Hints:
Layout: H1 3-13, H2 32-45, E1 47-50, H3 56-66, E2 83-86, H4 97-100, H5 103-112, E3 118-127, E4 153-159, E5 171-172, E6 190-191, E7 199-203, E8 208-209, E9 219-227, H6 237-240, H7 243-248, H8 251-257
Antiparallel strand pairs: 1-7, 2-3, 3-9, 4-7, 4-9, 5-6, 5-8
The structure holds 2-oxoglutaric acid.
2-oxoglutaric acid (AKG) binds next to strand 8.
Amino acid sequence: MSVEKKLFADMLSADLAGTYPRTASSGQSVDPVVADADLAAVQRDGYVILPDLLSAGQIAEIRTAVGPLLDRHGRNPFEGHATQRIYSVLNKTRACDLIADHPRVLALLDRLLLPNYLLSMLQVINILPGEQAQMLHTDDAFYPLPRPRKALGAATIWAIDDFTADNGATDVIPGSHLWGEEAPDPADRRPVVMPAGSCVFLLGTLWHGGGANRSDRPRLAVTAQYCEPWVRPQEAFTLSMTRDTVRAVSEDIRRMLGYSIHPPFIGQVDGMHPKRLLETPGS
Length: 283
Ligand SMILES: O=C(O)CCC(=O)C(=O)O
């Protein structure tokens, strides 16, 4: 490598944040053997089920907090006319924070994405009885880069109700994260059956969709999506969140909202680390 190229490569990877160096994620608290096994499953199948991560008390707290916020139905076939969605969840309740920054999920993200990856979206999805199967899609298709390729993000979908074969459990097409431009066949949909308190972690390149709800009960879920630190998140958190709310969330969430730097300077504010915005109380 030429001297110039080496200098430039060093500059691109340098963490220039002196006052606010990069913070490690709580994913580091997860046994590496467990996290590596999760990663191997994700790389093979495009998804992995992480069972029983929430206690009955945590599930009840989420249900109580989000229930009153479920006040509208979807506006188009993708959102689902018999599906209720809550957007901007971080601005409405703290009850779902433990989903956004769960260590088991962060341990996987730490292995898949570049440091200071971002939260792209946090949303509640309640699929009502009678809802049809959602169209199959991939979550990072809006980044116009040809496939096959590495996923530019990943998602979790957390079961707040048990996910069963007929109540709208997320359908996946195992292995489809490796595809190029192939079209998915709906006959290949496989429901992710898992008990409440579990989540399915899936790569942004995996074909999936909400299932048809043929039961007589709603199916409540919370989904968190994450992306590389150099692509645009779906939710503009830095526009929507007050600084006091940003101060109230965990350091992991704060970093994933964009109060972090993708080296050497993506995310800067007036040439400085964005966390400086939080230094003045009341600002
Ligand atoms: O609710 C689900 O199970 C999946 C929904 C989904 O993939 C989406 O709306 O993007």
